[in-house]
Amino acid sequence: MATTFSSTTLLALALFTLLTSAAHSTLSPSFYNASCPKLQTVVRAAMVDVVRKEPRMAASILRLFFHDCFPNGCDGSILLDETPKFLSEKNAAPNFNSVRGFDVIDAIKSKVEKVCRATVSCADIVALATRDGVNLLGGPSWTVELGRRDSLTANMKAANEFLPGPSSDLAQLLNTFNRRGFTARDVTALSGAHTIGHAHCGFFADRMMGDTSIDSAFASLLQQNCSLSAGGGAAEALAPLDRTPERFDNAYYRDLIAHRVLFHSDQELFNNGPQDSLVRQYSADGTLFAADFAAAMVKMGRLNPLTGTSGQIRLHCSRVN
């Protein structure tokens, strides 16, 4: 499928790619080896406790990372509370009452501050917690590049404009991710994040009520379960994103083939289109999916980070120093 870009769009994409490449060149897996050698041990131990108590939180932290990085770069801006100077990204439409895990990041930050005062950014803690959460549910691990700094402000406008929605079609998905430097293969792999966690029924109500791309028996089951769990069908009821929501595996892709996924944007990856072949590959080869997902997550972590003297190392993730 071809996508047409204007010269202005191409120039903006080139500049974004240049800035991203220059910025991530200063990121390094060994960034804190001397200044905070216990960092990764502290974050991992904290996530072990978190995931043991609530496996769903691993998916929530993964989503928090994506919603931080994708609109404006991996800068911890989504963690900031609203102030008289700026609107919080927490209140943007894609985030309000759906993005969670802020308290988890705050708790890990407090633990890190006890061993390395004013050294590690909240943005880097989110990146490490994301990797560990995925891995603890049976998913891949990857080398997290570190050295990000925290933003001094939030960007609600970018969060509202650039995060893809659950009703997006394939062209919209590919275009949105392409603007951030991701390939169609990256999109298909990253969408596999929906192999863990749950979603509010309100986000896929249209799928239950007449979307022809969903298995009809599955749609009926969703209607029943959402109604029962909410005591009347409230949008806040939850449904699992795939058949094994507490295990990071390739079941999501098997559900795509069976037309039994929650979001229209997910089903677009397997709907007689160009991504069908890759979906079939991932459904049959979990190792291939895991490798591609890990590579795409490293790429996600390189999105326009603040480094050097830009931004700051926040002492509290919810507010600037």
List the helices and strands and how they pair.
Blueprint: H1 7-24, H2 39-53, H3 56-72, H4 102-115, H5 122-136, H6 156-162, H7 170-178, H8 184-190, E1 198-200, H9 205-208, H10 216-230, E2 238-240, H11 251-257, H12 264-267, H13 276-284, H14 286-301
Antiparallel strand pairs: 1-2
Helix pairs in contact: 2-4, 2-5, 3-5, 3-6, 4-5, 8-14, 11-13, 13-14
Domain Plant heme peroxidase family profile: 26-321
Catalytic activity: 2 a phenolic donor + H2O2 = 2 a phenolic radical donor + 2 H2O
Keywords: Calcium, Disulfide bond, Glycoprotein, Heme, Hydrogen peroxide, Iron, Metal-binding, Oxidoreductase, Peroxidase, Secreted, Signal
What does this molecule look like?
- The chain is an all-alpha fold.
- The protein has 2 domains: 157 residues, Orthogonal Bundle (Peroxidase, domain 1); 128 residues, Peroxidase, domain 2 (Orthogonal Bundle), CATH 1.10.420.10.
- Helices cover 49% and strands 2% of the residues.
- It is built from 14 helices and 2 strands; from the N terminus they run ααααααααβααβαααα.
- Strands 1-2 form a two-stranded antiparallel sheet.
- Helix 4 crosses helix 5 and helix 13 crosses helix 14.
- The protein is globular and about 55 Å long.
- Belongs to the peroxidase family. Classical plant (class III) peroxidase subfamily. Belongs to the peroxidase family. Ascorbate peroxidase subfamily.
- One of its GO terms (biological process) is hydrogen peroxide catabolic process.
- Its main location: secreted.
- Its EC number is 1.11.1.7.
- It is found in: Secreted.
